[in-house]
Amino acid sequence: MSSLRDAALKSKAWPFEEARALAKRFEKAPPEKGYVLFETGYGPSGLPHIGTFGEVARTTMIRRAFEMISDIPTRLICFSDDMDGMRKVPDNVPMQEMLYENLQKPLTSVPDPFGQFDSFGGHNNAMLRRFLDTFGFEYEFISATEFYKSGQFDATLLRAAERYDAIMKVMLASLREERQQTYSCFLPIHPETGRVLYVPMKEVNAKDGTITFDDETGREWTLPLTGGQVKLQWKPDFGARWAALDVDFEMYGKDHSTNTPIYDKICEILGGRKPNHFTYELFLDAEGQKISKSKGNGLTIDEWLTYAASESLGYFMYQKPKTAKRMWWDVIPKAVDEYHQQLRAYPTQTPEQQVDNPVWHIHGGEPPVSGMVVPFAMLLNLASAAGAEDKANLWGFLKRYAPEASPETHPDLDAATGYAVRYYQDKVKPNKVFRAPDEKERAAMQALVAALKDSSGTVALELIARKNAEAGQADAVLPMVDWQNDEFLQSIIFAVGKVHGFEPLRDWFKALYEVLLGSSDGPRFGGFIALYGLDESIALIEKGLDGALI
């Protein structure tokens, strides 16, 4: 542990860089509250999306990194802004008309369109917690509605009344002139309609702890600031929450970055110490547009988990958080395979390399052993070639390729076969487009079949020797004939492409993929033949030559 801790103190991995910056916050003295508080915020105006998960996952990575380098206890709070008024109706939920009738009511006062919970906010909170629990996050959940109504926010609200002018000075400087005329940091909840009102204040009475205002009809009201009858506008609420909870660290998306000085100033006005921040770039959909809860234009957590294990999503979240990333179906296979590559490398690495390895951060310093003897991308191509309907189809090939593997001994591989079949059926099969080979490609594929059919290996070795001679490497040692060896099979395919004049050689492999697999991209073909089987691969190529796959 000490060697890992020493390595962590020097690591350039972004969670450790943030953890060390946070540790400097307590160089003079530990926090008076006895722990370091990490917070993530969630706006339950729509169904939770992967960005919400990513915020908690990344915060947890920094929390674990901090725990590696510091002995100060930590807590993580997930705070739901469920007292916000529903400003628009999400496109991806039922009962649209009912929701329109409840616009501007706090999300915890809007009926649940799914009919499962007491409110729409309650439904979305439950979804978020279920998702976070699925991934085993350690967190404490706080509902803004409960926080306001229980009185936990009362002292901060009363202090906001005392320092109302200072808060308004900060806020008004950030607003257009027209908006300045009606703005107030306090939002009353109408006693009769239950709607969140965006109205100017006629009076803020710090001594009595009340506000006075006119509603939309011109009727005057005076309400106490306490007990959940008044809430703060979202920007002041951000800073006030930091002050009320004494938050030490919070991350948020780039779209919040321009508001950071506002959050910080309001936190300090209310007697708090601004927390450390981390701003991450946004996730993009297939068209490069920002993912939105209300539009539902990004992958959901459930959708990702339909096609891959949770660790692959954690790996995706770890990668370059300050770079905008496209998040669509096609990123899943790559994330799965890169995650397992890192997992396999971990046991052989030095402590310095281990703390820089994403799997250390994904698993809180205790990564498991990878049982993926076959890459996920290869499983997808196997499912494609075999027309697999269930994972049992794939295990027939896997047992021949890796006799030591079984669903019991390699549970991650077993799960991956199921994911691969679903991904193939849903995302690959509908988009497959086979074609016939042209004359040059046909001649090369016929030569490949001839080499694979000659069990002695003579034809294959002659092709490899000819390729070596044309490359000026006539003295190169020929490989051993081994029809189950990936490298031997790959050398045959490589030689065929070179001898038949494919330049660049990528065109030869692309032809194999398009003719035999219906895609422009594919696996390392020697490995594919070893996995799929020699006889089965020969039959597949012959079907491609006959046009039977089109």
Second rung of CATH, namely the architecture of the domain at 2-144 and 233-284: 3-Layer(aba) Sandwich
Structural class: alpha/beta
CATH superfamily of the domain at 2-144 and 233-284, called what? HUPs
Tell me the number of helical segments per DSSP (H or I, 4 or more residues long): 25
Going across the biggest sheet, name each strand in turn: 3-2-1-9-10
| SS elements, strand count | 12
CATH topology of the domain at 2-144 and 233-284: Rossmann fold
Estimated helix fraction: 40-55%
Largest sheet: 5 strands, parallel
The best one-word shape is: elongated
Give the integer mean of the pLDDT values: 93
The fraction of residues in strands falls at 5-15%
Query: Alpha-carbon distance between the termini?
Result: 58 Å
In the CATH hierarchy, what is the class of the domain at 2-144 and 233-284?
Answer: Alpha Beta
Q: Radius of gyration, Cα only, in angstroms? A: 30 Å
Enumerate the spans where pLDDT stays under 50 for 5 or more consecutive residues: none
Task: Characterize this entry briefly.
The protein has 550 residues and is α/β, with parallel strands linked by helices. It is built from 25 helices and 12 strands.
SSE arrangement:
Layout: H1 2-8, H2 14-24, E1 36-42, H3 50-69, E2 74-80, H4 96-101, H5 120-134, E3 140-143, H6 144-149, H7 154-162, H8 164-172, H9 177-180, E4 186-188, E5 203-205, E6 210-214, E7 220-224, E8 230-232, H10 234-245, E9 249-253, H11 260-269, E10 276-280, E11 283-284, H12 301-307, H13 310-318, E12 325-326, H14 331-345, H15 351-354, H16 358-362, H17 376-386, H18 391-401, H19 411-428, H20 439-453, H21 458-470, H22 486-499, H23 506-517, H24 525-532, H25 534-546
Parallel strand pairs: 1-2, 1-9, 2-3, 9-10, 11-12
Antiparallel strand pairs: 4-8, 5-6, 6-7
Helix pairs in contact: 2-3, 7-10, 8-11, 10-11, 13-14, 17-19, 17-24, 18-19, 20-21, 20-22, 20-25, 21-22, 22-24
